[in-house]
Amino acid sequence: MKELPIACMLTPAQLAERRAGLIAGLRSRAERVERIASGVRLHFAAASGCLHEIARTIDAERQCCPFLEFRLTVAPGLGPMTLEVTGPAGTADFLMDLLDGA
To answer: Per-residue DSSP letters for 48-102?
Structure first.
């Protein structure tokens, strides 16, 4: 598969709305956000409704940013969750800017 460009397909107004809604909501639920080599890792407590919000965000973001790869880990016993969002070179900067603006 050829490498997809690091570009969001949303208009500036749509991106602003997404930042204020889904991305800000996800960012506020994260206990910790860490930059990793190819993207970001978000850590979440096992809070009610959090898994649903993570899934909604993944579904929305994969439609406008097709270069992203998502890995969700849910610990056993109703434990914490970790979401890794990665992509080609430059993705970490793109995501950190997006999350910092949320």
So the answer is: TTHHHHHHHHHHHHHHH-TT-EEEEEE-TTT--EEEEEE-STTHHHHHHHHHHT-
Contact 91, 52 (CB under 8 A): no
Query: Letter for the amino acid at 62?
Result: R
pLDDT in tens, 34-89: 999 999 999 999 987 899 889 988 988 888 888 889 999 999 999 999 999 999 99
Structure confidence at residue 27 (pLDDT): 85
Q: How far apart are CA 82 and CA 95, in angstroms?
A: 16
Element (H, E) at 34: strand 30-36
| Widest CA span in the chain | 41
